[in-house]
């Protein structure tokens, strides 16, 4: 039955007032409104979750929800339905707060006659619609701006390429002998071309961050390894200023749940800033340790003995386009001022926090945190309670390069290709891909935990194998891959455990089996030479 | 054509880019690295030059006018001889989508402009020295 009438939900425990309102809405004879009256918030929320409602009239004095808690309740169950709150008190503060919390209008009982009530309802619905539309327009504008920046940044790359090509041709003496002085000047051109390229990259990243397109691939990652590699990358820049680069790794350093490419990006940003703002012969230190303030998180920091940041500037450094006004620092104004903004977005999207502490003239320290990788935590949404499984499939994709990995980028690219391929092969939401980034024998192993019956595992493995054989990256002869799988039986005793304990126990079991996969199988293969 | 004597035959590289400065820069750089270079500025020229010259490798700019970049790849793949010629795609555009699209059409590698000289030269060397690969 298609009901064209406006569906009004009235949650009001005062029966006399409710009757009054029902009459205002034309009673059951009304062709414009259909009023549903309930007396408690919980009943109201239940109704909202099961039925279409166009507007909610909400009393603020309900027996089971005091004041604005009722508003919050409705917003969380049905965020797209406009609310008009009804109160017996004349309280402007409460009114304002209700509007801030998401209500569209506020009416005082007794002062609202029939006409006012109906008008308030219509107004609430219209205003709500406008808000939704404005949101759509805003999203569209961001989209347009994103496309604009994308187009512009692509166009900028061609002339930049020509500048780079010819400056390097001259510097390399291809067009005739190049004096050391000339080479010096050409290197300045090249350095600025690099700077320009970074700025173009940053511009693209920022628009991606704003339109929610920042790609973040969360996986188990080694913060230590990434930090060590980042430090090595900036070694030359630090040496040019005779800076001491230190890396201090305190105590435990468990793997984190983060995106290794993005982590590297953040560390490079912080390190490059530290190097830029530290005068000759200073020190830059990278530290990792467990975060005391909150267990289950790792704390990383990049400290320098540089010029420091004044307190009023400290509030703003993570904002877009913020640059230090300090011209005494060489190269201080270079760049778009987007690095820290992007870093903050990246860290936040990896469930971390980032902040800075500083003393002018002494130095600065930039901190960021990341969650420790917990297999149980990652597994728990998949191992739905009440649906206890008897077995899980553990599938392992091993990747290695015969002459060793050409570079960290090449290795990351291979692992990422593997992860993407595996994701395409398996059903989303049901299965889990866990790249194992710490390999001591040059073999990268990616694990999938799949919810599949033993026969299903066979089919899945064959499907993956077929896909791998057709994928360009994995056809490169210098590259070896192998798939192994096993059905992990979940012991009957686990059924006695609570949900949290069950997840933890299954996680431990899988880790154990994964470790065996990791070492055992490779040894077999080296003997049998059964790779590819 | 093999040349007799101690001189090694220079490998032939076809450079396809609609930007004349970028084209010239690549030409000078590759010539200095002892390759024989041929140039084309659009899709039609690319195909006709390739047929005439029979290059050992092609460097292709994806941003050719009228969507020519990807079509060059497709035309190459359709030609029995050219299908075996390795193509390196260089592009100003976002690798996110374009890398996949290029590799799918038979390109051997993809780089975003500007490419560092060492990176491009290493990729060229790798492809020219390697065994002939399957074209997927």
Task: Give a quick precis of the structure.
The complex is a heterodimer of chains A (532) and B (136). Chain A has 532 residues and is an alpha/beta fold. Chain A contains 15 helices and 18 strands.
Detailed description of the structure:
The complex is a heterodimer of chains A (532) and B (136). Chain A contains 15 helices and 18 strands. With 532 residues, chain A is of the alpha/beta class. A five-stranded parallel β-sheet of chain B has the order 2-1-3-4-5, sandwiched between helices. The model of chain B is unreliable at 1-6 and 131-136 (pLDDT under 50).
Keywords:
heterodimer, A: 532 residues, alpha/beta, five-stranded parallel beta sheet, five-stranded mixed beta sheet, 15 helices, disordered C terminus, B: 136 residues, 5 helices, disordered N terminus
What letter string, H or E per element, gives the SSE order of chain B?
Answer: EHEHEHEHEH
Assembly state (oligomeric)? heterodimer
Average per-residue pLDDT of chain A, rounded, comes to: 81
Distance between the termini of chain B: 29 Å
Radius of gyration of chain B: 14 Å
- Biggest sheet of chain A, in brief? 5 strands, parallel
Q: What fraction, in percent, of the residue positions of chain B are helical? A: 40-55%
* Binned strand content of chain A: 15-25%
DSSP summary, beta strand count of chain B: 5
Which of globular, elongated, flat, extended, rod-shaped describes the shape of chain A? globular
- Structural class of chain A comes to alpha/beta
Structure annotation, total helices of chain A: 15
Number of strands of chain A: 18
Q: Which two chains form the greatest contact, residue counts included? A: A-B, 25 and 23 residues
Strand fraction of chain B equals 15-25%
Number of helices of chain B: 5
Rg of Cα set of chain A: 30 Å
Mean pLDDT of chain B: 86
